[in-house]
Each structure stands twice: as C-alpha cells, then as structure tokens.
Amino acid sequence: MTLTVPASALTYLGTEHLIDDESRELRAAVRDFVDRRVRPHIAGWYEEGRLPARELARELGRLGVLGMHLEGYGCAGASATAYGLACFELEAGDSGLRSLVSVQGSLAMYAIWRFGSEEQKQRWLPRMAAGEAIGCFGLTEPDFGSDPAGMRTRARRDGDDWLLNGTKMWITNGSIADVAVVWARTDEGVRGFLVPAGTPGFTAPEITRKQSLRASVTSELVLDDVRLPADALLPEAAGLSGPLSCLNEARFGIVFGALGAAHDCLETTVDYTRSRQIFDRPLAAYQATQLKLADMGLELGKGMLLALHLGALKDAGTLDHRQISLGKLNSVREAIAIARECRALLGAAGITLDYPVIRHSANLESVLTYEGTSEVHQLIIGQVLTGHAAFR
Q: Is the domain of 123 the same as that of 139?
C-alpha cells in the first residue's frame, strides 16, 4: 500500500495562485517573525496574563505591519489581501498579537488617517507606524457594545475647549496607549477626539482576571472632566458612520485572523494524531479521526476562499461593508468550532498550554464577541436578504 505525503489543508486546497508574490513575501516575513519572536514565549505570556506590547510594537513597526494597508505617513500602502494574510499569521501566533496590530492600524491609525487633520496625521501616524507610539480606540461602553448609538460619554464645548466625561470598556491597548481615539456624544452628534495619555482627568486602568485574550492589554478608559483643545477633534468624522467605518476595517482583518488560529489548531492536531499511539496504531489512522480532520480542513478551506474573495473585492474597491459580515461571521464561527474539536482530539493534552489549542479556543471566545457578535452579523446579512432591519 502506497501512502500519500501528508498535506496541510490549505496546501491541498491550492489557493496559492490567488496570492501575488508581494503578498506571499510579506506573509513569509510575518510568519518568520511569529515563529521566532512569539511562539517560544506565548504560552508563558498567556499564563502570566501579560504581553510585552511596547517592545513587540517597535519590532512590528520595523517589520512594516502597523497601518500597513494605509498610504503615506510611514505606512506601507500594502494591499488588503496582504494585510489579511499578515493578520492570518499573527493570529496563528495568538489572537492578542493580532489584536495589538489590528487596533493600532485598523482602528486608531485608520481613524486618524481617514478623519484627522493634516496636523494630527503628521503628529501621530509616522510614530504609530514605527511602533514608537501606541493608540487605542474608545467606542464600547460598559452598557453599550452592540448598540453604540446609546453611548453615554459626552463632550461639550467650554469656550474654545471641549470637556469630556464618560467611561469606555474592553479597550485593547488602553493602559499603554500614547493616544486614545475616543468617541462621544455632542450637541452636533457623535464626534471623535484624540486624547493623549497623561491628559488630566484621563485614566486607563487595566482589566485583569481575564480567561481569554490573556496575552493582550485590555483596559477601561475613564474620562472625568477631561479638557481638550479644539484641535483634538477629528474634523472629518461626524455621526456614527465614523467609528463604524473603522470597525469595518478591523472586521476585515478578523476574517483572515480567525482562520489563522484555526489553521494553527488543525496543524497541531494533525501532527499530534499522527504521532499519538492508540491500541498500537496512530490516532490519525482511525476513520473517526480522519472524518473529523476532513470536516475541519474543508471548513478552513472554504473560509480561506471566502477571505481571499473579500480581499480581492476590497483591493478592487468594490467591497460592500455588509459583505464583511459574511466573512467575520463565518471565519470566527468555524474557527471556534475547529478549535473545540481539536481540543477534544488532543484529549487530556488539549487542556494544557503545552499545545496552543486551548489558548486559541479561549481567545476565540472573545473574537466571537468583539467587532460585532455573531448575532449582529447575522442580522446584517438578514437585512440584506429581506430588506427589514430586525435589530430591535
């Protein structure tokens, strides 16, 4: 009997012809960075509940992935597909690592790049692209996540200044950020503000005791009569369309990123089942095991095809923001199912940090929730199909 050479699920799918040389090179560089700089340490960081985010940010800046899909101001101007593939490799390392890059580039930097003044762009973007300054994005509040229109944070004019009061919650990078992009209600509607760290009345206590995204900095933002000059306002953002457009940028990265976590789980599990002996045979040689691996490989492959399709649409400038919901819903839902199935195939070994599977599974519980829950994305798709908004 001749055995075929084992192939990874994505190699077997044959998608390489859909990726250009530049994107492949960048993907390889990010994969090398993750293998060299993150994988040897991530289990310890996760167990300790910390991430050397500032150190990593500078290294990621040198790699060119911070704000990589933006043009100018020290940003690489890479394609959407290249950015997606970078997110895939980063999240294969850990969701916290991809979150660091995603919040920096797709939320904080994108908000400044898209809605900021030229002075704001010149002040912040080059330093943020280099990883010398870190940003965060303050939209979610303790009582308002899926419904940001209900936010209670307010900004009112006081002479030429603005006074901000309110609280933001679950903010990645918050307590280490040099600048926070904060969204607040005003008499003119929802507006965005740049709040530098150290501004009187602005604090960012870190959130601890997390059992997911432990290798990530998560914080609360507290604004108590924070006084900002007039030029702290993002001049081109008016209404909720501003922050929601930033969320669409971040959601796009998750379409690829979640698949990276799933791929790491599947590759780990295939290797484990090929070496694990059960009743004098490799676990991988049993039909029940192969049926599970085949189903997971199929869903991973389908998810990658959808991600690459959405990347091609974004690069062509024809991507509808509602199409991102297809990708975010599918990628995260299937990724968490793959992680759970892989955990079961690893048996007792699957609950330890000796393998990445339980870490990915726990992280994906957060990814399932942020940037729009599965239910929110289902309702976005449902509205497209029926013409009726059913959010309330």
A: no
